[in-house]
Amino acid sequence: MRILILTTSFSLEPGDGNLINDLANELVALGHEVEVVLVDWNATPNGPSRRIASAPRLNVLAVSPRSLQGFGRFIALATKWLASSRFARREMKRNLPQQNYDLMIGFSMACISLSQIVYAQQQSRHSYLIQWDFFPYHHRSIGLITNPILFKLTLWLETWSMRPFDVIGCMTPANETYLKSHYTLRKGQKTEILPIWGPTDQAPLAPRAAVRAAFDLPAGNKIVVFGGQLTEGRGLDDIIAAAELSRELYPDLLFLIIGDGRLACVIEQVSRNGSNITYRKRIPRENYLELLTACDAGLVCTVRNVDVPTFPSKTIDYLRAGIPIVASVESSTDYGTYIESKGLGAASLAGDPGALAATAARVVGDAALAAAIRDRARACLESDFDVRKVAQRLLHVAAEGAARA
């Protein structure tokens, strides 16, 4: 099959892939041709587009965002939202003329790719939206959208952008229920469960002392690690507060935070003030996995008073590293129930730093869990999150659509 992926997140660096890299590579491994159109929102605005042969049968059209600079942050952001997808559509017409695809795959938030979606629909036999971010509901919950008129406008735009897709895949049953109750889907539009995914191979174990020394981490502490984007909605306030409480209650507990983002400067400043938080900038995924294996638990944190059920993708890397999970999550999600039922760790409610600190201390002190976690993690990857199963499901959906046609 010929498959088109529209995304704003795809790594062009060897050894530093993400979930979408994993999916594209697996589709290629199954014998199909994949074209990725990447609007790289982290790239310098108004730069040139690049056509890249990432691997045999895997090509990438990398497009820099468009933005009007020099007139303030609001104008730059607004024009970035409005112009980037339209420019990417022009680049698609120029670089991918008259292509026919068996399947087009898009990702939420769909509205930032609307112009591309409309164009790609004309050239695709079947389409599938992978629904991870419930925009704008989540943005409203964490305070990034406060104007009710702007909320209604963006909700209408997001809904309109979702409706062209034949099938919408949600991470969990709670996600699917939320989708159906909060968005007006097109009649006949299908929804289903499509879990997050990753490779099933686990990161090789290296001597813990050597790994910690290589990353300048103390040899004797229990380390709980948080890796990912350091932005709003990630529970960073709770992590900071939990770390402060742990200084007296659990003095051997160290909180390691790795990543980049708008709040990185806040984390870095806190780490310099004698706290038990250590900050490291984002590192390539292969190095990150190695570092995780030398930690005692992985942190998954969201924010209080959010009704959008989440299932954080950082789970995959924690499982690949074979470390237990400490979760602080909103009450609306089924994530905490999932990890506890699988014996992967423990969860508390978001917004309670004391419970987070106590849960972290209990998990890293559980010798039986530490001894069993790699086997449990491997089994969980193979049964629930195998990227090959996800790729095969998407291909089956495309085949079903072709048969109906």
Would you mind describing this structure in some detail?
The protein has 405 residues and is an alpha/beta fold. It has 2 domains: 2-198 and 386-404, Rossmann fold; 208-384, 3-Layer(aba) Sandwich (Rossmann fold), CATH 3.40.50. Helix content is 43%, strand content 18%. It has helices spanning 19-29, 73-95, 114-121, 137-141, 148-162, 173-182, 208-214, 236-249, 264-271, 285-293, 314-321, 335-341, 353-364, 367-384, 387-404, and strands spanning 2-7, 33-39, 50-55, 58-63, 103-107, 127-131, 167-170, 190-193, 222-227, 253-258, 277-280, 297-301, 325-329, 345-349. It has an 8-stranded mixed beta sheet, with helices on both faces. Strands 11-10-9-12-13-14 form a 6-stranded parallel beta sheet, sandwiched between helices. Helix 8 (236-249) crosses helix 13 (353-364) and helix 11 packs across helix 14 (367-384). The longest helix is centred in the N-terminal third of the chain and has 23 residues, at 73-95. The mean pLDDT is 92.
Task: Describe the secondary structure blueprint for this structure.
Elements: E1 2-7, H1 19-29, E2 33-39, E3 50-55, E4 58-63, H2 73-95, E5 103-107, H3 114-121, E6 127-131, H4 137-141, H5 148-162, E7 167-170, H6 173-182, E8 190-193, H7 208-214, E9 222-227, H8 236-249, E10 253-258, H9 264-271, E11 277-280, H10 285-293, E12 297-301, H11 314-321, E13 325-329, H12 335-341, E14 345-349, H13 353-364, H14 367-384, H15 387-404
Parallel strand pairs: 1-2, 1-5, 2-4, 5-6, 6-7, 7-8, 9-10, 9-12, 10-11, 12-13, 13-14
Antiparallel strand pairs: 3-4
